[in-house]
Design brief:
It is built from six helices and 26 strands. The protein is α+β, with helices and mostly antiparallel strands and 375 residues long. It folds into three domains: 2-119, Roll (DNA Polymerase III, Chain A, domain 2); 131-254, DNA Polymerase III, Chain A, domain 2 (Roll); 258-373, DNA Polymerase III, subunit A, domain 2 (DNA Polymerase III, Chain A, domain 2, Roll). The strands form four sheets. A nine-stranded antiparallel β-sheet has the order 14-11-12-13-26-25-24-18-22. Strands 6-2-3-4-17-16-15-10 form an eight-stranded antiparallel β-sheet. It has a five-stranded antiparallel β-sheet with strand order 5-1-7-8-9. The model has no long low-confidence stretch (mean pLDDT 94).
Length: 375
């Protein structure tokens, strides 16, 4: 194999592929990035592709380049990343022969031992996903929905079901749902009608987070989505992401939402966020932030025994219901408020022990359920 690529484009492609490479690969081949070069491509097709995978999530980024000799080579991800990002702007030459790869740019010359490409898994393309349903979705809508929901998924691999985001269809609209049992995020969007089979599908949250990053880096206008029986695929610009669906039954999240609420706080999103940020400077890892609500306003406070205390009042609010004091994880609360659309957020509360519901006043497309902390 022998190719020439622009250094800046090559760095972006390597970084995209590397994010799917496991840091604890059980097979040597999975610690590498597979570079494929194909001659005689169809008009408009990019001839060079770089792929990374941990067998759960795969990322393939395509770049323009000159292919002098087609073929493939598997290069350790760590060294490929470190090399290409330190090269100067200009053309990078990559050629391989036997068990070696040579990377040349300007006066820089690197010779690397390669990994056996024949041991690399065969990655499916979007069109090869079995039993797929496909749709084109607005990139802006999907990126926003992913950013609002994916962070609520668990990172605990001991509970794999909760590390995924549920895609389902409700009333002809696409719905994304994630929970780590402490918080629950729900986002509805007008897209993908008929895309999801009955019962929905569960996609790894980190795969969707990668889709969100790719949309931004590629400045994509739309995303091609294919959902199959075992896999989900996304294409944004020159990057494709393939994810193995998580098996199992997602919790019945609708039952977690209280049927009614006794209290409602309506408050400026910006003012509340700024107050939480200032008061939260004293909060240690497990220190809750207390929200005292009354008709006269809201008092936000933190008490840290070994450090001190912080208080701030907000008077420009609307509170309906009996006075109460409720406490939350400050990081989770800030994330939830930030994700709500618009300038004003409504927080509906049953009591100080039951989950509160947050959503933007201007739109009900996004809802966030947050469990309080007992104080």
């Amino acid at each position: 194999m022998k190719i020439q690529c622009d250094q800046e484009q090559l760095v972006a492609a390597v970084q995209s592929a590397a994010r799917a490479v496991s840091q604890r690969a059980t097979q040597p081949a999975l610690s590498g990035i597979l570079i494929r070069a194909a001659g005689g491509q169809a008009s408009g097709a990019l001839p060079v592709s770089l792929s990374g995978t941990d067998q759960s999530v795969s990322v393939t980024a395509c770049v323009a380049g000159s292919v002098e000799e087609s073929g493939s080579v598997l290069i350790p991800s760590r060294y490929l990343q470190d090399i290409v990002k330190t090269l100067g702007a200009g053309t990078v030459l990559i050629e391989s022969s036997g068990s070696e790869a040579v990377i040349t740019s300007g006066k820089s010359h690197f010779k690397l031992r390669t990994l056996p490409a024949e041991d690399y898994p065969n990655l499916a393309t979007l069109g090869e996903i079995e039993g797929q349903r496909g749709a084109e979705i607005s990139a802006d809508q999907l990126e926003e929905a992913i950013n609002q929901v994916a962070s609520s998924a668990s990172t605990d691999e001991a509970r794999p079901i909760l590390t995924g985001v549920l895609l389902t269809e409700v009333g002809g609209r696409l719905r994304l749902v994630a929970t780590d049992s402490y918080r629950l995020s729900i986002r509805d969007l007008d897209a993908g009608e008929g895309l999801v089979a009955e019962g929905g599908c569960l996609i790894p949250a980190r795969a969707l987070s990668e889709v969100g990053r790719t949309i931004k880096s590629e400045s994509a206008k739309s995303v091609s989505v294919a959902l199959g029986e075992r896999e989900a695929g996304f294409v944004a610009g020159s990057v494709s992401i393939l994810a193995r669906l998580i098996e199992g039954e997602f919790p019945d999240y609708e039952k977690l939402i209280p049927a009614s609420f006794e209290r409602k706080l309506t408050i400026s999103k910006t003012e509340f966020s700024d107050t939480l940020r200032r008061v939260g400077t004293l909060a240690q890892q497990n220190t809750p932030v207390r929200i005292a609500c009354s008709a006269s306003g809201v008092s936000v406070s933190v008490r840290e025994q070994d450090i001190g205390e912080a208080d701030e009042d907000i008077s420009d609010v609307k509170f309906e219901g009996e006075d109460l004091t409720i406490a939350f994880n400050p990081g989770y609360l800030r994330e939830a408020i930030s994700a709500c659309p618009g300038e004003t957020v409504a927080i509906e509360i049953v009591d100080e022990l039951k989950a509160a519901l947050l959503q933007g006043v201007e739109s009900a497309d996004y809802r966030h359920l947050l469990m309080p902390i007992r104080i």
